[in-house]
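Human: For the file, kindly provide a plain-text protein record giving the amino acid sequence and the backbone structure tokens, at your earliest convenience.
Assistant:
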Amino acid sequence: MSDEADPRISALPLPTRDEVPEGVRRLWDKSREVLGFVPNVFVAQAYNGEQFQAWWAYFNLLVNKEGHLTNAERELLAVVVSGLNRCTYCAVSHGAALRVATGDPVTADLVAVNWRQAGLPEREAALAAYAEKLTLTPAEVTPEDLDALRAVGLDDHQILEAVQVVGMFNMTNRVSTAIAMLPNAEYHSLGREPGA
């Protein structure tokens, strides 16, 4: 297990610092420096270090770098999908990220439980509705479903990015849930102060 990781964060063994690739150790160090803690996902999934690094490269590019959607829109999609999938780790950690991105301490909690009660603006509601359909009934998704996204001003680059984010979180939710990954305690308080 990692030097500081709580073994209860995953149903699988946790790697030690000596058992992970150098790139994982650098990510752990950078996280501790920037965030003040190492996200549990960085420890639990690093049990298979090379596969974790491949996942992280795409996840980081899709969710954390500047893209076609705003950071808040990507985090909204993450929270909608994670709430629907009942993924504790992702709903809590990305709920925190959504609170920080928006400065709103309330909406992320509402979105995680029932986005329809969150009073979302039209564009965000259309993204949430599409994420819900692609998550819960993917076999029923048709090209016509994209019309609702175009109607609220999303262009094709933004639509494709939304689809990719929804797909990423459906996959990540399943991995996180399967290994019983728990969120870091720090996520519960992040962004709770209005305007934080």
In short: The chain has nine helices and no strands. The longest helix spans residues 156-178. The chain has a mean pLDDT of 95. The radius of gyration is 17 Å.
